[in-house]
């Protein structure tokens, strides 16, 4: 009996001690509890015992005090030490996301996230973090980091004999002498089985096979047939395709119904206008075949696809010089050559044997430094320096090194480039997640 009493008394004392300890511990402030947890975790990390430090630091980071940022910083160090173990990469990036989404997030948090993603070659995530940080903080350091990283790209494995300029989301490609259609990143969607294929627009492209001209959709189904003979056809855009019938060029609808107005030559419609030749001279017509620029010029400058007009601007050649029409007036400056404007950016122009860039009003934008150039598309311009082509930003800085035999303009994050293997496509990694420049 006495022994039982002693046991009960001992148990009671132990219980009292536990209760007293709980009372003492619970009486500590959040700061004291947090510092104690961090101190215990530090003892373990100093000995390299990271795995046991994790729950201590996670608990410490759960408090909201002035020491919480320090606790989170130590926790991220431990996560990084264990990053190759299952689950810790997710814990680390999850904590970064929490910090970036916090009100008043500092620029260094976004820079840390971007640096980490760049270190593991996840460029889209890095750029996403940087863009979010720029918007949230306005940091110039983040903007500089973004600018230096945004032009990373990957090269497609597919090669073609020839590739045209990208139009909208597709591009004409040639393989073994026959033409097909690919997405803007080079993935083939209409097989290379045609003698000729136009640009794709209004859910169709015009093709010629075995001498027959008809239209196909993106699944290569026939959707319209030309009922009369055409010796040739041009590119299709804005519900118009040009046809060469009886030695004259006419416009036809998307159903390949030819119109009556004839021209000696016709370009591709862009911005509701197309270059046209009549009586041996060139001008520009609108959708109703009215002359925007009368046919009194030796040439209207067109790109590879036949486009001449964008944002109200056109280049015309007369008496050996090129002049810019913009906003309904001709500017005073003259050029040796030019490339048409795109829907954004500067146009490439040539003077004294070198290429530079002007804005839509004809003002100089980038110095005459290049051996050849194309106008800007998606804030990038293909330029030739010496024997090879690369790309510059709108600041005039080389951002993709000149290593290509030939290069074409960017669209939808991709651009065709000629390498020793053939025509391939480079795609900016930022576009892998559907983001824009």
Secondary structure layout:
Blueprint: H1 2-26, H2 30-46, H3 50-61, H4 68-81, H5 88-100, H6 107-119, H7 123-137, H8 140-149, E1 153-155, E2 162-163, E3 170-175, E4 178-183, E5 188-194, E6 196-197, E7 205-209, E8 212-216, E9 222-225, E10 232-237, E11 240-245, E12 248-252, E13 258-263, E14 265-266, E15 273-278, E16 281-286, E17 291-297, E18 299-300, E19 313-318, E20 321-326, E21 329-335, E22 337-338, E23 347-351, E24 354-358, E25 364-370, E26 372-373, E27 380-385, E28 388-393, E29 398-404, E30 406-407, E31 414-419, E32 422-428
Antiparallel strand pairs: 1-32, 2-3, 3-4, 4-5, 6-7, 7-8, 8-9, 10-11, 11-12, 12-13, 14-15, 15-16, 16-17, 18-19, 19-20, 20-21, 22-23, 23-24, 24-25, 26-27, 27-28, 28-29, 30-31, 31-32
Proportion of helical residues: 25-40%
Strand content: 35-45%
Structural class: alpha+beta
Name the overall outline: elongated
Computed Rg = 33 Å
What does it look like?
By secondary structure, the chain is an alpha+beta fold. The chain has a domain at 29-154: Alpha Horseshoe (Serine Threonine Protein Phosphatase 5, Tetratricopeptide repeat). 27% of the residues lie in helices and 37% in strands. The protein has 8 helices and 32 strands. Strands 1-32-31-30 form a 4-stranded antiparallel β-sheet, with no helix packed on it. Strands 2-3-4-5 form a 4-stranded antiparallel β-sheet, with no helix packed on it. A 4-stranded antiparallel β-sheet has the order 6-7-8-9, with no helix packed on it. The longest helix is centred in the N-terminal third of the chain and has 25 residues, at 2-26. It is elongated. The termini are far apart. The model is unreliable at 16-25 (pLDDT under 50).
């Amino acid at each position: 009996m006495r022994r039982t009493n002693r046991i009960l008394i001992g148990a009671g004392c132990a219980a009292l001690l536990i209760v007293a300890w709980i009372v003492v511990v619970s009486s500590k402030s959040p700061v004291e509890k947090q510092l104690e947890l961090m101190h215990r975790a530090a003892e373990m990390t100093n000995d390299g015992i990271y795995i046991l430090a994790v729950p201590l630091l996670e608990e410490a980071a759960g408090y909201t005090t002035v020491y919480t940022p320090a606790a989170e910083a130590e926790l991220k160090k431990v996560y990084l030490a264990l990053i190759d173990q299952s689950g810790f990469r997710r814990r680390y990036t999850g904590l970064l996301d929490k910090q970036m989404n916090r009100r008043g997030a500092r620029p260094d948090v976004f820079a840390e996230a971007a640096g980490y993603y760049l270190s593991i070659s996840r460029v889209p995530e890095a750029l996403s973090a940087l863009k979010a940080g720029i918007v949230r903080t306005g940091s110039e350091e983040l903007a500089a980091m973004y600018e230096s990283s945004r032009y990373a790209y990957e090269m497609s494995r597919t090669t073609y004999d020839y590739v045209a300029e990208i139009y909208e989301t597709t591009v004409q490609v040639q393989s073994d002498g026959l033409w097909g259609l690919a997405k803007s990143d080079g993935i083939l969607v209409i097989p290379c089985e045609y003698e000729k294929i136009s640009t794709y627009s209004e859910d169709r492209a015009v093709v010629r096979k075995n001498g027959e001209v008809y239209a196909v959709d993106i699944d290569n189904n026939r959707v319209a047939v030309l009922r009369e003979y055409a010796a040739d056809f041009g590119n299709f855009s804005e519900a118009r395709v040009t046809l060469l019938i009886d030695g004259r060029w006419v416009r036809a609808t998307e159903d390949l119904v030819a119109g009556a107005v004839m021209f000696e030559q016709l370009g591709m419609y862009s911005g509701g206008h197309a270059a046209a030749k009549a009586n041996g001279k060139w001008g520009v017509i609108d959708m109703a075949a009215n002359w925007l620029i009368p046919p009194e010029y030796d040439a209207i400058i067109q790109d590879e696809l036949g486009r001449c007009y964008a944002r109200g601007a056109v280049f015309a050649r007369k008496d050996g010089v090129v002049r810019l029409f913009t906003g309904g007036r001709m500017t005073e400056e003259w050029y040796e050559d030019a490339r048409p404007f795109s829907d954004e950016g500067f146009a490439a122009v040539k003077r004294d044997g070198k290429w530079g860039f002007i804005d839509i009003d004809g003002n100089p934008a980038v110095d005459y430094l290049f051996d050849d150039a194309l106008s800007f598309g998606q804030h990038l311009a293909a330029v030739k320096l010496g024997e090879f082509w690369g790309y510059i930003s709108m600041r005039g800085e080389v951002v993709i090194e000149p290593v290509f035999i030939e290069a074409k303009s960017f669209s939808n994050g991709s651009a065709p480039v000629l390498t020793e293997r053939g025509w391939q496509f480079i795609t900016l990694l930022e576009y892998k997640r559907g983001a824009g420049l």
